[in-house]
Amino acid sequence: MSNAILMSGGADDIDFMIHGLFSYQLFGHTVWITTSHVCILIVMLVILIFAVIANRKIKHATEVPDGFQNVIELIVEKLDGVVMGTMGKVAGPKFVNYISTIFIFIFMSNISGLFGLRPPTADYGTTLALGLITFFLIHITQFKNLPLKQIWVDMCSPLPPWLPIWFPINVISEIAVPISLSLRLFANVLSGTVMMALVYGLLSKIAIIWPAALHVYFDLFSGAIQTYVFCMLTMTYISQNYEQE
């Protein structure tokens, strides 16, 4: 428990494993609150505080924006532009809030290692939950907007619908979507977390200043890339299963 949440400190304190902080009994089962839960809570609180401040600032927005208002408008405009450019004018407005939310959450989780936290996305439970949310959203949208006949034709392609040989393969490919989304994000973030833990643990005496360059790559650059890839794939999957008008 002493090396639980933060990954900074002395060589003996650095650890990339998930630790249980405390437990409680729920319906006869022991439920653990782990470092991942605490780090997720910290990230969510930071996002919530930023959102409240941004909301108050926008309510009193000036015609000539100042520094913080510029940052808010830049974030919103860039996220709106990416979503609208990828999903189009039909699906884009329906999903811009969801895509923007997971983008900010994943990015903040990925870069939390810069502040000594264990990134929540280095826990497969977190990334799998994100992948499953996207998976269900894809298929809810599919059944809501596409006729059943079109769905059947798509699941039987590239062969005609009266010869559903490819149907089982297409079902497997659909089930693989949340697994591939979650594993890609999890593996990339965890690898960076393990690398930095090894650097500080094995090279603690000479790990001064120069590891900052590794943090820039593993936490900031790689974290931004993986956030973009996850959101871009999510938008692509949804757009493919959305009836464009």
From TrEMBL:
It comes from the Bacteria. GO terms for biological process: proton motive force-driven plasma membrane ATP synthesis. Its main location: membrane. It is a multi-pass membrane protein. InterPro entries: ATP_syn_F0_a_bact/chloroplast, ATP_synth_F0_asu, ATP_synth_F0_asu_AS, F0_ATP_A_sf. Keywords: ATP synthesis, Cell membrane, CF(0), Hydrogen ion transport, Ion transport, Membrane, Transmembrane, Transmembrane helix, Transport. The keyword Cell cycle does not apply. Pfam families: ATP-synt_A (PF00119). The chain crosses the membrane at residues 31-53, 95-115, 121-140, 185-204, 216-238. CDD domains: ATP-synt_Fo_a_6 (cd00310). It is found in: Cell membrane; Membrane. GO terms for molecular function: proton-transporting ATP synthase activity, rotational mechanism. PANTHER family: ATP SYNTHASE SUBUNIT A, CHLOROPLASTIC (PTHR42823:SF3). Key component of the proton channel; it plays a direct role in the translocation of protons across the membrane. Belongs to the ATPase A chain family. This is ATP synthase subunit a. The lineage of its organism: Bacteria, Bacillati, Bacillota, Clostridia, Lachnospirales. The gene is atpB_1.
